[in-house]
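Predict fold of Ion transport domain-containing protein; 278 aa.
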Amino acid sequence: MLVWPKAVGVARGSERLSFLNDVIVTTVLDMPAFMLIMAFIMALFGFSFALLTRFKTAEFGTILRIAFTVWNLQLGDYEQDLYLANNSMTSFFFGYTFLVNIVCLNVLIALMGDSWEKTQEKAKARGLQKKAELIVDLEQGLDHTDSALFPAWIHCVQPEQADGGDDDADAWQGRIVALRKDITAASKANAAKVDTVKAKVEAVEAKVGAVEASVGAKVDAVKATMGAVEAKVDAVEAKVEAKMNEIKGMLEQLLANAASSQAAIEATEVRVTPEPAH
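Predicted 3D structure, encoded as tokens:
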């Protein structure tokens, strides 16, 4: 048992073993909530079985036996006659096996798949980090005064990245990173198309604006012309109305003169009429 942690530490030098080790660690770290739910389900059904048997059977006599029994139940190790004793035991048996062996098992598989994806996403970088950690651990046992082992300068030769380097990197980056790269590339392409469409729309809007300005200028000119015509019409109407008022005044004067003349004539006729004889 004491050799196992050391063996795991040495295995960090292999990228594949380091990756699998990270998968296991990540999965374990992602499982507390799942394990809490599993413990609750096991306790719930375990004590339900114990209450149904009134704690009189060997399988459900103590808390420790209850824990072992429900654990063995999900592994398929159980006494069939015990769960066929009554309908309640049978119902709880089917409910527990369905919930744990089907539902929770699939949840665990999905959880492990997610942990695998998260680890695969950084597998290359994590592998190099583990190698570096192993080198540091090994260097701690060496003589640091030896210039051959610990030179003042470290020269690193790195191959030039080819044009297809991004495609080669997909082999270790995982599906999520590759999917992100595809989404990013598609987003950039769509952004370029959107910019092109925006430019065309802006050009069309500029043309429409020019047409609207031209039409607006013509409409304003027509309105100005109509305003001038209306002003002239108003002036003519004013002159006509003035003439009509003048003619009306003259007619009224003539009528007044005629009425005055008629009254004078009638008065003259009255004066020349002879008086009747007595």
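The chain has a mean pLDDT of 82.
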